[in-house]
């Protein structure tokens, strides 16, 4: 990623050859400038590696999500094709038939409730063989 070129004698210039051009550094103060430069390059390289890793993970997640979306779309398309294949008039007839069934069931339940109420009002006296007389009728437990 980078290359340092140095002369053999102290005080010579060091050329840093990098991506963004050449930079000149002096070989003084126990190579502090070169140490700082190397540290900042290493730090930037580590950050770049981390960003590339994160980018790769996000790309993989994005790809998986797109695949899931396509699967769901294909499943819904199959369902929608079945609905589209049915005629609208047929669907309307089905809906009316279902609604008529609901109305018919409601009327039937009401008529049963009315018959139960009428039967509850009927009571008859019954005489037992022992001579005791009982009154027979429907209990109001329903």
From TrEMBL:
Gene3D superfamilies referenced in this protein's UniProt entry, alphabetically: Vasodilator-stimulated phosphoprotein
Domain of life: Eukaryota
Coiled-coil residues: 41-75
Annotated keywords: Coiled coil
Keyword Coiled coil: yes
PANTHER family: TROPOMYOSIN
Protein's name according to its UniProt entry: Uncharacterized protein
């Amino acid at each position: 990623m980078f290359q340092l070129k140095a002369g053999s004698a102290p005080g010579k210039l060091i050329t840093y050859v990098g991506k963004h051009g050449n930079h000149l550094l002096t070989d003084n103060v126990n190579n502090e400038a070169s140490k700082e430069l190397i540290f900042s390059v290493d730090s930037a390289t580590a950050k770049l590696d981390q960003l590339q890793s994160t980018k790769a993970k996000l790309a993989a997640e994005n790809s998986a999500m797109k695949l899931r979306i396509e699967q769901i779309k294909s499943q819904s398309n199959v369902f929608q094709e079945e609905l589209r294949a049915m005629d609208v008039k047929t669907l309307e007839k089905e809906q009316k038939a279902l609604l008529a069934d609901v109305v018919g069931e409601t009327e039937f339940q009401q008529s049963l409730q009315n018959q139960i109420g009428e039967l509850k009002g009927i009571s008859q006296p019954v005489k037992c063989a022992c001579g005791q007389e009982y009154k027979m009728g429907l209990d109001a437990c329903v």
